[in-house]
Amino acid sequence: MAILVTGGAGYIGSHTVLTLLERGDDVVVIDNLSNSSQTSLDRVAELAGKAPIVYIADVLNNDVLKTIFSNHNITDVIHFAGLKSVSESIKEPLAYYDNNVTGTLVLLREMLAAGVKHFIFSSSATVYGNPESVPLSEQSPTGGTTNPYGTSKFMVEQILADFSRAQPDFRITCLRYFNPVGAHPSGRIGEDPNGIPNNLVPYISQVAIGKLESVSVYGNDYPTPDGTGVRDYIHVMDLATGHLAALDCQEKGAAYKVINLGTGIGYSVLNLIAAFEKAAQTRINYKIVARRPGDIAECWSDPSLARKELGWQAIYNLDEMIRDTWNWQKNNPDGYHV
């Protein structure tokens, strides 16, 4: 028996593959390495003392999927593969719908043909769009997405809900993550953005190590304690254990589940900068600039359903998240590109 992890060389995928291997699961990975690296999987094997079976291929390639399902006794699929930059999705919407939506359809068809009926989908809090109130629970309104990336995740959730009604013996869990940060405590695997990072934490990290000059803080006049935007950040290792908990609870409760993975705590941009200054023992230069259109004041999760349904909760605090981010950054200043 084995677990198929699509996008297993990526940031969240690699940490989840490591966690699965460490508990004794057999893992098969499919990844086209378009925004990830083979090195991450080499290091996962080194840390786990056991390697996943790896297929360098696209989830849109149904011939490779057929081979995987016929050659390996796959019992569960965790689907991370996809494009993930909000800003890029605005410029390249067709690529996002093709990869994120069509890729999922191809995968589901091959699962159906192979009789594999356990599916965990890597969704996102972007499905909530611009929330009217916080914290966000699974019952909060969805669909008012503000970019093609978020829309692609919302569309897949709709497809999975319809598919679940048509195939009631399938067990499907959509995990809506908030803002993944951090790295494995070893400092051997972590987030390796291509080019200038799109996300705040890796951006601050590159300022801390001197690769970038300063952080732009978009607005300090929000109705928040220090005027800067507040978000729910979650350690990537907490996300990895959340996937294992979801895997273990597939047969319990409803056939189709939607569950938030967050800490339930909001941290501001200035909180993050202060935590980095503490971890890196250096001053982080930042400048206050105008708000960005579409940005919201605050967004954090209500994680109580994950506690109830999965018996899971996040355990890392902000200082630990930033400590592990910095440990990865200082040990790998150029990411996986040595």
From TrEMBL:
Single GO MF descriptor: UDP-glucose 4-epimerase activity
Keywords, alphabetical: Carbohydrate metabolism, Isomerase, NAD
Pathway note: Carbohydrate metabolism; galactose metabolism
Names of the cofactor(s): NAD(+)
CDD domains: UDP_G4E_1_SDR_e (cd05247)
Enzyme class: isomerase
Family named by the database record: Belongs to the NAD(P)-dependent epimerase/dehydratase family.
Subunit text: Homodimer.
Protein name, entry field: UDP-glucose 4-epimerase
Source organism per UniProt: Citrobacter pasteurii
Gene (name only): galE
